[in-house]
Amino acid sequence: MTFREFGFDDRIVEAISYMGFEKATPIQEQAIPQILKGRDLIACAQTGTGKTAAFMLPLLHQLTVEPHDGTSTLVVVPTRELAIQIDQQIQGFAYFIPVSSTAIYGGGSGSEWETQKKALISADVIIATPGKLISHINMGNVKFNKVRHLILDEADRMLDMGFYDDIMKIIAALPKNRQTLMFSATMPAKMRQLAKKNLSDPFEVTLAISKPSEKVQQAAYLVNDQHKIKLINELIRDKPNFDSIIVFSSTKKAVNEIVRGLSNKEYLVEGISSDLEQNKREEILNRFRAKKTRVVVATDVLSRGIDIKDISLVINYNVPGDGEDYVHRIGRTARADASGMAITLINEDEMYKFAGIEKLIGNEVNKIQLPPHIGVSPEWNTSRSTRGNRSRGPVRPGQKEVRKTGDNRPKAEGQEKKIFKKRRRPPGASKPKTE
């Protein structure tokens, strides 16, 4: 289905064509007609399926053909990166129409606060993170009495981050007579509860929940932590055609350590996490988009909603916390019609968790042994008991293999465990003398 078939204003269709979009994705085909009818909607689809265009294009069309005064549309998102990205996409979609937008998020200076304060009054479309928007509401800077459309994007993520109360407070500041759209990748019970309270007879769209794109080639290495950096360096060296690579770390603390381990004179490696100032994060993302930076090491701040084209390889330095995080991480590659590769590094303690991810996505990922010159892979074991049996790494040449015995101390092969029993003296017997 082409975008012209939706009946959009010709200027919007022209802007879409300039951006290189021709045919609608499945989520767009199902959601756009219902949004144009004015219905509330819950849309659940995997990352990279075109959700932003699914909710913004019909609303921009309505803003074009219907008179409006002041802020008509509010989009609430979990992170400032996603707010900036949606704002940029709106500017592209609305290039030929008189519709303005602005992003409201934290981490800026005092002058940016004043800029946001003015924009909250004049912009047609506001894209905001919950915390910063609540600050403006508390200061009386918000005039939402004319809002006709509310979009909660990445709603499940906002609930995971503890924004439920903030979302309810924002909704309380809006007119009751409005259209509400919820877009998400998953549908947890708390999100159902939120929808029941705030949506009226919503139309539901559900596509491929928790399933990675079939265009992502998935693989996993069984590897102890001390060999991960060496393995990643070799993977990057052996794949020179992969010019945009993301390495995901589960912790902010490990990002800098991984960057140092991957630093290379031939290409730029940079790290990004929520500890960086917003302008620094944007600079790194811009260099990555421009392919000046080949490798970005990041926490899950980049796993959702960040649209960077042509990412060829995603490496999970750690097994993600749950299946949804895994889907979002590897969803950074194989966007739109492209293909990509995702590699996960699994140590002994993470095997049980990764087995659960495989069950969720309905696919057993190919496990690869380490090249001998890097080290020896731990044996695949999905029992929880492996947590108490951490691998001590490969046996070095000339070193005897060590096995564990019942007293939890390592014993060399052939060494017997000595058992000492305390003899009990008969009643009344004296303690034996010692020489």
Describe this structure in words.
The chain is 34% helix and 17% strand. By secondary structure, it is of the alpha/beta class. A hairpin with a 5-residue loop joins strand 15 (402-404) and strand 16 (410-412). The longest helix is centred in the first third of the chain and has 15 residues, at 51-65. The radius of gyration is 27 Å and the shape is globular. The model is unreliable at 385-435 (pLDDT under 50).
Could you list some keywords that capture this structure?
alpha/beta; Rossmann fold; seven-stranded parallel beta sheet; disordered C terminus
What is the count of β-strands? 16
Bulk shape? globular
Structural class: alpha/beta
Number of individual domains = 2
Any low-confidence stretches, pLDDT <50, length ≥5? 385-435
Q: What separation lies between the terminal Cα atoms? A: 99 Å
Q: What percent of the residues sit in helical stretches (DSSP H or I)?
A: 25-40%
Q: Strand fraction band?
A: 15-25%
What's the CATH topology name of the largest domain? Rossmann fold
Radius of gyration over all CA atoms, rounded: 27 Å
Number of helices: 14
Which strand order spans the largest sheet, edge to edge or round the barrel? 3-4-2-5-6-1-7
**Biggest β-sheet, characterized?**
7 strands, parallel
Helices and strands, in order, run as HHEHEHEHEHEHHEHEEHEHEHEEHEHEEE
Give the C-level CATH assignment of the largest domain: Alpha Beta
CATH homologous superfamily (4th level) name of the largest domain: P-loop containing nucleotide triphosphate hydrolases
What is the averaged pLDDT score? 82
CATH architecture identity of the largest domain:
3-Layer(aba) Sandwich
Assembly type of the chains comes to single chain
